[in-house]
Structures are given as C-alpha cells and as structure tokens.
Amino acid sequence: MRRKVVAGNWKMNGSSEFARAYCLEISSHLPVDDIDVVLFPPFPYLGIVALSDVAMGGQDCSVNASGAFTGDVSTEMLRDVGARYVLLGHSERRVMHGESDELVAQKCLSALKADLIPVLCVGESMQEREAGAAFDVVSGQVNAVLSVLSKAQLKRLVIAYEPVWAIGTGLTATPDQAQEMHQFIRASIANVDAEGAEVVSILYGGSVKSDNACELFAKNDIDGALVGGASLKVEEFIAICRARQQV
Questions:
Q1: Is 113 annotated as a binding residue?
Q2: CATH number of domain containing 26
Q3: Quick check: is 162 catalytic?
Q4: Where does the chain bind substrate (predicted)?
Q5: Of these residues, 99, 124, 128, 162, which one is catalytic?
Q6: 229 a known binding residue?
Q7: Is 10 annotated as a binding residue?
Q8: Is-above-0.85 flag for pTM?
Q9: What does the pLDDT profile of the chain (247 residues) look like in tens digits?
C-alpha cells in the first residue's frame, strides 16, 4: 500500500525562533490520520524539529561516511540527530552544485544503507519540456537510481516529481500533466519491479498550494506533495496536509 506523504522543504530559510514557533503550531494539529508529514529544515535547525512530533529529514547527504569533507553531512550524522528521511537530487543541487544522476544514485544508496528514506527529486526544465525531452530526462534520472538498488531497497524509495519550471515560479503543472508524468514514473519502476511500483510513493512538487492541492491529490498516481515556499507558512502547510487527508 502506498503511503500518503506531505513534505515541506524549507530550503535556506528560517531561524531558531521560526523553527520553534512552527513546530509548536504544527504539533498541535498532528497527527494527521494516514499521512506521513515530514519537514526538511536547514541543517542547523534539525535539532529543534527533532523535539517536535513531526518526522524530519536532511536536505542533502554525503556519499562518504566520515573524513576530510568540510561542509558535508553524513547519513549516520543525520540518523544520529533523529532524521528519518533525506532529500536528494533536488534541481537546485543538480544545477547549482553540479550533481550528476550517478552521484544522486550513490547518495540514495548510502541513505538506504543507513536506514534513511531517500526522497528522490526528478524533473525537467522548461527548455527540455519544450524540446519534447521531458520524459527522457526524467527517465534518465529515475533509472540511474533504480539501477543501483535491490528490489528490497527500491520499495523504501520515495520519488518527488518537481518540474524545474514550476519551482518557485508560481507556475504549476496541470493535474493532467502531473498525472501523466507520475504514471510514466510508476511504469518505469514497474519495468524493474512490478510489486515495487505499487509500493513507492510518488509526490508532486512545484508551487503546490492549498488551493490546488485537492485537484492534484485526486489523481491516481499522485500520492502526496513536496512543498517548497508554501511550507514556510505553517497554516498553509497544515491546509495542504488536510487536503491530502480528505482526498
């Protein structure tokens, strides 16, 4: 059975005061039945979120276990502070930090070995979509990861489809566009493991808000959302969680 997941990616935003107030507010509205609610705060605030009732994760991890890797954070360090998830392959990491499909795949493997749940981000740019290459791009990103995982590991993966052109732009893929890509991703998983395809949760990300959440969640292959900017407003994020509960 696929889990319903609503995750909030704070990116490089917030403060200790913000994190404490946010977690106090959201904890008063949890648990939300049958939904996994996850927050991805910046690394300095993981300890604050860990004290709340919300599951949390790191925004990235290293493929290395330890050593002279200044600025990196290992999977074991994330586990040590209470993280259950880790966000990997976000387009901002791929574009701004030059992360390749192969590196993202190795990070997913490292996360799974450390008993973390990787949330793998995939998605195409506007130029790639307009060139008719959207499915090829997403297929390459997904298959790079599937190729290094066992069937047991695959079943613990979460995938987030985030069209790059819809991240922070106010643009959103239509529900039909999102469903089409989610269905394609699930079919790609089924080519490797049909059973796994029915277990892996696939989230939509890209300007998700409370006023479009229900329409997105009504689609068969959209299991939840990875929320960016809207997750910084706790009332808005809670409303999106409620929308996932209702649909």
A1: no
A2: 3.20.20.70
A3: yes
A4: 9-11, 168, 207, 228-229
A5: 162
A6: yes
A7: yes
A8: yes
A9: 899 999 999 999 999 999 999 999 999 988 777 899 999 999 999 999 999 989 999 999 999 999 999 999 999 999 999 999 999 999 999 999 999 999 999 999 999 999 999 999 999 999 999 999 999 999 999 999 999 999 999 999 999 999 998 887 777 789 999 999 999 999 999 999 999 999 999 999 988 999 999 999 999 999 999 999 999 999 999 999 999 998 8
